[in-house]
Specification:
The structure holds two protein chains of two kinds.
Chain A: H1 6-22, E1 34-40, H2 44-57, E2 62-68, H3 70-78, E3 85-87, H4 91-94, E4 99-109, E5 111-116, E6 136-139, H5 144-156, E7 164-166, H6 169-177, E8 183-187, H7 188-193, E9 198-201, E10 211-218, H8 224-235, H9 237-245
Parallel strand pairs in A: 1-2, 1-3, 6-7, 6-8
Antiparallel strand pairs in A: 3-10, 4-10, 5-8, 5-9
Helix pairs in contact in A: 2-9
Chain B: H1 35-47, H2 51-73, H3 80-85, H4 87-120, H5 126-138, H6 141-152, H7 159-166, H8 174-199, H9 202-210, H10 215-226, H11 228-243, H12 247-253, H13 263-273, H14 275-301
The chains are: A alpha/beta, B mainly alpha.
Chain lengths: 251, 305
């Protein structure tokens, strides 16, 4: 019986092609002009501008970002996600990944209480976060903002009554912006970035939970030279000005 | 109220009301050729499928099974007992089972009538309604969660009145989890039940009606028993989808231990700090869902090996 072999072979090749395409998320190692930066969610606005400035200063270079909870990003990098640079919202998460060279602290950030515009629940300080009748959002303790929140609450001797533990700081901020919670503990920079929809309230215990933001080139960076150039740019006076404008403190 | 007259509670071959009807009833089908030759052909096809189909099928099978094998291979079995004993795990598992079951009940209560409406009645805009019912199927669950927040949230379209009039607030509550899961899982039930209704022989319902049964009685005693397997299959799909729900839940209901942190959320969070714990939780969820599905299948869907 004659059986044309072309059809099965074609199908197998197609299947292989589909599988190969699925594995093509990684940029090739020699992609000269591409830089992938994994950065803490709280860096969303400032690093997006930094990326644009870096692209403007280096023709033909494209910077792509992956923003998220530093803990989630560290886990992704650990599992082989293609990243060149990691900027974490605390040192603990950077220590979990393999880096090339010494991490450098490029910014500091403090917590603020974010409330919906006009502060409908009348929140005045950290103690209000323990009022059970209020809707409170905190970050999950895995995320740096959650760890910092725990430190601050402990320093104030407040046992918080959160209604939800959000994945990252931006998720917590969104719940405030939507008015779904009465207050959330986020970074000062996040309140500043969402100034139109949320108000920020300072509290003294924030000084005891200051987050250091370290940055490093990753050991598996596809483009180590470009990665190092970006790290240098973040630490340069121009980069530091952009971060300061977003509300970060200089290291 | 007792039934006034008794239409057939289940269709039986001998009492087929359509039997006098041109011999096209389901019970009167006759084989065209000799049964032996038919069976032989079928056996040959079953034994040796063409390579063009078998090879991609094998690739597909590997693709579906390998991740599960990997999960089992990497499971730190030694940690299983201590992990299971942790109250947080039991809590998340209990919450997952309760919420998925409640969501499925909600879907059954509203989804079966909806499917009946789509399959058995004719009204303007029915196609639009069917499209709307299937939207959650293609919508990313996170988008569903955002949509739920905008409607049932404290400042949402409906939520602001629930809050003002009844002091009811759904986000960040276990009820919120049930709603999120029901939103995502209901299309599975509706589609399965509507398919079953379309496949069922309407003449049984017509016969019941000519015998004086009301539409509600017909639905209860003729339609429902007829589409039972379809409803069961839809229920199982719906439950399984609700059990695994993640995106809409974390967006709409948030994440708090004992209140809204279901197993998928616990797995996601554990992965960030303790991947081994995440693996153990995943295996547990896998085991529970497989156990429930297998036992349901044997009891209600009648094997079908």
């Amino acid at each position: 019986m004659f059986r044309p072999l072309a059809a099965p072979v074609a199908v197998v090749l197609a299947a292989v092609a589909v599988l190969a395409a699925a594995g093509c998320g990684n940029p090739p190692a020699d992609a000269g002009g591409r830089l992938t930066v994994f950065a803490a969610a709280s860096l969303t606005e400032s690093f997006t501008s930094l990326g644009e400035e870096f692209e403007a200063a280096n023709r033909g270079i494209r910077v792509t970002f992956n923003f998220g909870a530093s803990s989630a990003l560290a886990q992704q990098i650990d599992q082989g996600a293609p990243a060149d640079v990691f900027a974490s919202a605390n040192p603990a998460n950077l220590e979990r990944v393999a880096v090339a060279g010494e991490p450098r602290v490029f910014a500091r950030n403090v917590l603020q209480i974010a409330v919906p515009k006009g502060n409908p629940a009348g929140v005045t300080g950290l103690a209000d976060l323990g009022r059970p009748e209020l809707r409170i959002a905190l970050c999950a303790e895995q995320a740096p903002c959650g760890a910092a929140a725990l430190t601050a609450l402990r320093a104030a001797g407040v046992s918080a009554a959160p209604d939800t533990l959000e994945r990252d700081v931006k998720a917590a901020l969104t719940k405030v912006a939507l008015g779904e919670v009465d207050a959330a503990l986020v970074y000062r920079t996040d309140v500043k970035a969402a100034a139109g929809t949320v108000d920020g309230i300072d509290f003294p215990e924030a000084a005891q939970a200051v987050n250091d933001y370290p940055i490093a080139t990753l050991a598996d960076a596809g483009n180590a030279t470009l990665a190092a150039a970006f790290v240098d740019f973040v630490l340069s006076p121009a980069g530091q000005d952009t971060l300061a404008a977003a509300g970060f403190q200089r290291p | 109220m007792r039934r006034p007259r008794r239409p057939h509670s289940a269709p039986a071959a001998g009492t087929d009301p359509a039997a006098h009807d041109a011999g096209a009833g389901p019970a009167v089908r006759r084989d065209a050729g000799p049964a032996g030759a038919d069976a032989a052909v079928r056996r040959r096809v079953a034994e040796r499928g063409p390579l063009v189909l078998v090879l991609p099928a094998a690739v597909g099978l590997c693709f579906l099974v390998l991740p599960l094998v990997g999960l089992l291979a990497r499971t730190p079995w030694g940690r299983l007992p201590s992990q299971l004993a942790e109250p947080a795990v039991a809590e998340a598992l209990r919450l997952s089972l309760v919420c998925a079951t409640a969501a499925t009940a909600l879907c059954l209560l509203t989804g079966v009538p909806l499917a009946w409406l789509l399959a058995r009645t004719d009204f303007r805009g029915r196609r639009l309604v069917r499209a709307a019912v299937t939207v959650p199927l293609v919508l990313p669950p996170v988008v569903g969660g955002v949509a739920l927040l905008l409607v049932f949230g404290r400042r949402g379209l409906v939520g602001q009145y629930l809050d003002a009039w009844f002091g009811l607030s759904l986000p960040f509550t276990t009820t919120g989890v049930v709603l999120a899961e029901a939103f995502v899982a209901m299309p599975f039930l509706v589609i399965a039940v509507e398919g079953a209704l379309r496949g069922a022989d309407r003449r049984y319902e017509d016969a019941a009606a000519t015998l004086g049964a009301s539409r509600w009685l017909t639905f209860r005693r003729v339609t429902l028993p007829m589409i039972g397997p379809g409803v069961a299959a839809g229920t199982v799909l719906c439950w399984a989808r609700a059990l695994g729900e993640f995106g809409a839940t974390i967006t709409f209901a948030g994440n708090f231990p004992g209140e809204t942190r279901t197993m998928p959320l616990a797995v996601y969070l554990a992965l960030e700090t303790d991947p081994q714990a995440a693996t153990v939780l995943s295996v547990l969820l896998l085991a529970v869902s497989v156990l429930v599905l297998v036992s349901l299948r044997e009891r209600w869907i009648g094997g079908g090996t």
